[in-house]
What does this fold into?
Amino acid sequence: MSEKLAPGQARAPGHTYQEAILKDASEPPAPFLENSYEFLGDDDIPYTNYTSPEYAEAEMEKMWPRVWQMACRQEHIPEPGDYQVYDIGHLSAIVTRTESMQIKAYINACMHRGTALKSPGDNGYCASFRCPFHGWVYSLDGELIELPEDWDFPHVSRESHSLREILVDTWGGFVFVNFDTGAESLADFLGVLPEHFKEFNIEDRYIETQVCKRLPVNWKAAEEAFMEAYHVKETHAGGRDFSEPVTTYDVYPKNVNRFIHTVGSVNPRMPVPPTEQELMEALWGRRGPDAGDCPQVPEGATARDIYAGVVKQKLGQQYGQDFSHYSTAQTLDSIEYFVFPNFFIFPGLSLPMAYRFRPDPNNPDFSYFDLYFLRPRHPDKAPPPPPETVMLDVGDSYTKAEGLGFLGAVYDQDTDNMAAQTRGFKTCAKGGQTLGNYQEVRIRHLHQRIADYLDA
Ligand code: FES
Ligand SMILES: [Fe+2]
It folds into this structure.
């Protein structure tokens, strides 16, 4: 064990992420050069936060109904009458587009006797919402427009029995909902996010792949598997250039945190640093067997800069855009922002994911992971409609979802850890998870934000 510093002072030896990217030939966007780490304490996180049905119920009662959540992308509901159901625990909302192209969201329950109007996860088109039980009909604007045998309902009116609307707003092409009609605005909730994403046109992306997988772990532990790069060396051992990232961990008020880690840069922590040409070959290996010959890195240049140039050019051709203004860090690095409580977005060019996690309402040991790949829209071509969601059960490998490429096997490695954690949570005598102060600060941030709602 190395020499101990005061809690919160410790950082990985070698250079910081910010120092690493200043060695790139291109200038990174200003938010990449910021440090916003905050020491949030070092107490253990109780395992009951993950295993206790009472804790899950408290989250369901006090947190999920009050927070903004990503319900879908705008392209899921491009035309009037398109709808998408968003389910979170026992809550369910219908998100739709009205005749005037407004996006609205309603609680998915008939105002007669409560029947859910649409099935879980359903999506499609309808001219109006018709309840399957007795046939009450609601317009796309949520108004009660047909009441069969209305002679029996003198006490019911359009005013009293139209669908209950919930808050809806958009950012970056995503549609967010909030079941709490008195909640703060989405813009306030997102904090620094829009400012940090100014140089990425997230709204101009389309969904290339969508996958929904049931995971054998509590929703928080599932998220936590993606919040730190500390596990990469052990869990995803194999790619020398990827196994020693240099990472910045940052926490922003109140709902945002991030990591950004380098891809393909020399980490001074490595006992024998790779040469630039070795890094180049490792990066080139990502392109698959048809990549052709690996370029030579000229004297004085870095593999990162050369490889980023190739990526920008190839993706530029593929998507009909000019990405030359993207910095090396924007192009290559693993840039992951988290919006409390369940949304992750990677705005970088090479790793284009968005994640959403949802609890299983009946069992805290399981959760759902919605995974999207977002690609830049070709300016002259209509984007393809969202593809069918690939549904994966607990035992299904991500490699069944072809669109995930080399990441399928990586996600499988993460899933094995999740199942093992769920088993360990139940038998571990210690009572809680011990977190690293720096690399695992985002996990603590998540738990502290949940506690803010549960204690309120
Ligand atoms: S419950 Fe919907 S019409 Fe009766
Ligand atoms: Fe991982």
Notes: The longest strand covers residues 205-215. Residues 225, 231, 235-236, 414 surround fe (ii) ion (ligand 2) (CB under 6 Å).
